[in-house]
Design goal:
alpha/beta; Rossmann fold; three-stranded parallel sheet; 17 helices; binds uridine-5'-diphosphate-glucuronic acid
Length: about 450
């Protein structure tokens, strides 16, 4: 919304939320999320044509276009628990929109939702709006930005996708939204489809992206068993223009609030229409991701002479990727839990994640899947410590596990780190970002994902 406000000065954008603290933060100097470049965009537009408010009824009532960007987490109980998307917030938002609308509106699905959500939402809107003559046109406009590069992605998107009904009013609504993006996105990059294609494209894009990571991660296991180097393999296949070089970095596993949730959602949709083979195919992407995290933990344990009990292990990076403080579904949660379950004393350093978040993530019970993951062990507070200094985190540690690809990890003085550690000193590079030859020269025993020893 900040980007729309920045690029379209004549459009009034009001972001509303019932959470007062959050709106206050958006109106303050310290925004509630860390995202490179976002501060500048918000500051340029805020107070001009970008506003943040808790007065939902007033602003939704006045709007011509309403973007709904509420949470759609995975259901934790009831039918579809563990897979289906929980649409409670979406339905709640639709009821609010219906009750305060005195004029016709375009309703834009920004949240990632299951296919055919628009249908359900339309029913809620139509049956709850008391004002005669008010029409709602629902569009699906999924977001493809990635965290950490949001501003870049929004400034020059590969495409903007708008799905709408193939009726005169549906087409008019699609055109209205397209003209907003056309302020800065070339017309040929604005793709218009039917509603269901747009909804399904979002889930499919994430499933395909995650599948690339699980595919390359599966090969990383084979590389370790054979002496091949996964980075060489990735480069060799990535130069095939049909495959392409992006999203082939082997890692300790993918995380984030989107991939797992969206794939599970896709799996659930397939199951609900009776396509079990299709559901199993996509579910395997998640199973491979869990396997990769578990494999990492097992490698740490076996490399360190099959015992990590009472050993201090420094964890560099807790966020699910660099340049964000977001920890949702971060592989660090399962890895830390796995290490702690084997008795290790884990000391976490992350440049952006708040201490309270780390404690919360490691303390709460993980969703229990029907497949093997490092199970949630009862966590004692002594098993975790948090340091704000990477040198201090590594002091007296037996090993360092790199779990997020923060650039600063590459720049440390590893001789100094080595000197302060217990010997033999291990590094497990779960992101393949460090200079392994140099570390070995210093004296470290280095393990990396899919790389020869
Ligand atoms: C993802 C998609 O990339 C966006 O296009 C989409 O809009 C977004 O989900 C969403 O649905 O909202 P995001 O989760 O922010 O974006 O981050 P990604 O850059 O996709 O990274 C996801 C995870 O995969 C991270 O843990 C990352 O470290 C990992 N990853 C990524 C790898 O392990 N290897 C790679 O080669 C690339």
């Amino acid at each position: 919304m900040a980007m729309i406000a920045l690029k379209c000065p004549e459009i009034q954008v009001v972001v509303v939320d019932i959470n007062e603290a959050r709106i206050a933060a958006w109106n303050s100097d310290k925004l509630p999320i860390y995202e490179p470049g976002l501060d500048e965009v918000v500051k340029a537009a805020r107070g001009r044509n970008l506003f943040f408010s808790t007065d939902v009824t007033k602003h939704v009532g006045e709007a011509d276009i309403v973007f709904v960007s509420v949470n759609t987490p995975t259901k934790t109980q009831g039918v579809g628990a563990g897979k289906a998307a929980d649409l409670t917030y979406w339905e709640g938002a639709a009821r609010v929109i219906a009750s305060c609308s005195t004029s016709s509106k375009i309703i834009v699905e920004k949240s990632t939702v299951p296919v055919k959500t628009a249908d359900a939402i339309e029913k809620v809107l139509r049956r709850n709006c008391k004002h005669p003559g008010v029409q709602f046109e629902i569009l699906s406009n999924p977001e493809f930005l990635a965290e950490g590069t949001a501003i870049e992605d929004l400034t020059a998107p590969d495409r903007v996708l708008i799905g709408g009904k193939d009726t005169p009013s549906g087409r008019a609504a699609v055109d209205a939204l397209a003209s907003v993006y056309a302020h800065w996105v070339p017309r040929e990059r604005i793709l218009c489809t039917n509603l269901w294609s747009a909804e399904l494209s979002k889930l499919t894009a994430n499933a395909m992206l995650a599948q690339r990571i699980s595919s390359v991660n599966s090969i990383s296991a084979l590389c370790e068993a054979t002496g091949a180097d996964v980075q060489q393999v990735a480069k060799s296949i990535g130069t095939d223009s049909r495959i392409g070089p992006k999203f082939l970095n082997a890692s300790v596993g993918f995380g984030g609030s989107c991939f797992q949730k969206d794939i599970l959602n896709l799996v659930y949709i397939c199951e609900s229409v009776g396509l079990q083979a299709v559901a199993d195919y996509w579910h395997q992407v998640i199973l491979m991701n869990d396997y990769q995290k578990q494999r990492f933990v097992e490698q740490v344990i076996s490399a360190m002479f099959n015992t990590i009990s009472k050993k201090k292990i420094a964890v560099y990076g807790f966020a699910f990727k660099k340049d964000t403080g977001d920890t949702r579904e971060t592989p660090a949660i399962d890895v830390c839990r796995g290490l702690m379950a084997d008795g290790a004393r884990v000391c976490v350093y992350d440049p952006q994640v708040e201490d309270s978040q780390i404690y919360q993530d490691l303390g709460t019970a993980k969703f229990e899947w029907d497949h093997p993951t490092p199970k949630s062990a009862p966590v004692s507070k002594d098993a975790i410590s948090i340091s704000h200094d990477p040198m201090e985190a590594a002091k007296d540690a037996h090993a360092i596990c790199v779990l997020t690809e923060w650039d600063e990890f590459k720049a440390y003085d590893y001789q100094k780190v080595y000197d302060s550690m217990v010997k033999p000193a291990f590094i497990f590079d779960g992101r393949n970002i460090l200079d392994h030859a140099k570390l070995r020269e210093i004296g470290f025993i280095v393990y990396a994902v899919g790389k020869p020893l």
